[in-house]
Design a protein that fits this description.
By secondary structure, the protein is an all-alpha fold. It is 93% helix and 0% strand. The protein has 3 helices and no strands.
Amino acid sequence: MDKLINDFSFGLFFWQALILLVLILLLVKFAWKPIMESITAREEGIKNALLSAENAKREMENLQADNQRILNEARAERDAMLKEAREMKEKMIADSKNEAQVQGQKMIEQAKAAIESEKNAAMAELKSQVSTLSLSIAEKLLKEELSNKESQTKLVEKMLGDVKLN
């Protein structure tokens, strides 16, 4: 360092300072502007990219919110449709049960009526057969009882003995 101070020359310093100033002026005139423009452009590009990223993030959040809302609506609609389907199924089952009960009741009533009419017909037939059989038996008994003269007289006397005169 002492050597630099002892060997110091004003002429050399002047020319070096002048060259430095010319170099700085040339840099300012030709290089500084394009460098600053590229730095400014780069800075603007970064700002625009950050804004775009922020907008994209907001848009993505909005889309996610919309998707969630649509998904919730779809779930609610699906649940409503399932509930409606279950209610329809239960109503159809209940209606079918009621209709089956009504049909069963009608069939039972028809069967009872048919049984009653068959019973009445059978009873009428039975009465007819019993009366025919009774008449046939009475006829045979009377023929047998009244086949001889002696039995006829005994029967008449017995009947007259049973009858009381007032």
